[in-house]
Amino acid sequence: MRIVAAMSGGVDSAVAAARMLDAGHDVVGVHLALSQSAATLRESARGCCTIEDAGDARRVADRLGIPFYVWDMAERFRADVVDDFVSEYQAGRTPNPCLRCNERIKFAGLLDKALALGFDGVATGHYAQIVETPQGRELHRAVDPAKDQSYVLGVLTADQLAAAHFPLGDTTKPQIRAEAAERGFAVAKKPDSHDICFIADGDTRGWLTERLGEQPGPIVDTDGEVVGEHAGAYGYTVGQRRGLGLKVPRADHAKRYVVGVEPQRRTVVVGTADLLGVDLIEADRLRWCGAAPEGEQAYGVQLRAHGEELPGRARVDEQGRLVVRLAERTRGVAPGQSVVLYAGTRVVGSGTITGARRADRDASES
């Protein structure tokens, strides 16, 4: 097969490209230029897509003896990922830009362009597995639970999975680094990128303030009493405890968390930890990694990229929304986050959370 290997300049995508070549495929390396003003060097382990990263990817391609190209997708990345990130926070939601990037850039923009140019598929360095079945390809968790990235791939459709390749899913990260060293790749010891790639210093609130300006307002408790002030409700997310700067402590000195963000009123609501527990979640923008499931079924439910899998049941209601009921309450579920459903290790699909609350257990069990 003719394969485009997405090469970020890191160790994972380097080994992924090498493994596809070893498997006998005709491989072309492609680095995505996602920044309209790419930095020359990384500031830290955060971030990616610097000129340094492009150079690292090119050196790996040269060592492998494969063609290498840089595809400029900066404008599309800004519109589909960065601008979406800003507008979601401005609306009081907490987005996951990695899912949006996979959905709209790597497996829409990149894959669509590759197929249009006559390639058969795209290979990436994601830690996940593709399993061939009589019903079609399935997306499964990686064998290394510490590196599993199936959550951020839960936005892929069956058609996209048909042309996707994840050659690292059966290997642990230490093994990948050892293999890179054996192959003579200079990136073998290169630090992993993490957090949000386009916020290199990790200061999300400061980054948002630069783009949205200060929008001061009150921080109130659940009784409506003003207990602090903020410079922008967009800088807060449900479940947050640090950085609140509250001026009025509770009489019992209990810790308080963000329990609500109301950007229209420029208000942040705080409360005690017991108010964060929810077990009923609703989501829209559904994406199925195969045929859409029918009726209500039991699933494993994951709410964060590195969160634990929770038992629950889910169904699609008459309005086309995903309704998930967890077996136990969990904390810090915010609108804008993604909920991904699993059947064993198989990824069933995902949705974007629109709301979360406590189910009326007493009424349902009486």
TrEMBL record:
Family listed: Belongs to the MnmA/TRMU family.
Amino-acid positions noted as binding ATP in the UniProt annotation, renumbered to this chain: 6-13, 32, 125
tRNA-specific 2-thiouridylase MnmA-like central domain boundaries: 207-271
Subcellular location as annotated: Cytoplasm
Catalytic activity field: S-sulfanyl-L-cysteinyl-[protein] + uridine(34) in tRNA + AH2 + ATP = 2-thiouridine(34) in tRNA + L-cysteinyl-[protein] + A + AMP + diphosphate + H(+)
Residues at the site labelled Interaction with tRNA: 126, 337
Catalytic residues, chain numbering: 101 (nucleophile), 197 (cysteine persulfide intermediate)
Source organism per UniProt: Barrientosiimonas humi
NCBIfam families hit by this protein: PRK00143.1 (NF001138), trmU (TIGR00420)
Region (Interaction with tRNA) residue spans: 147-149
GO molecular function: ATP binding; tRNA binding; tRNA-uridine 2-sulfurtransferase activity
EC number per UniProt: 2.8.1.13
Main location: cytoplasm
UniProt record, GO biological process: tRNA wobble position uridine thiolation
Described purpose of this protein according to its UniProt entry: Catalyzes the 2-thiolation of uridine at the wobble position (U34) of tRNA, leading to the formation of s(2)U34.
Name of the molecule in the record: tRNA-specific 2-thiouridylase MnmA
GO cellular component terms listed in the entry, alphabetical order: cytoplasm
Domain tRNA-specific 2-thiouridylase MnmA-like C-terminal: 280-353
Keywords: ATP-binding, Cytoplasm, Disulfide bond, Nucleotide-binding, RNA-binding, Transferase, tRNA processing, tRNA-binding
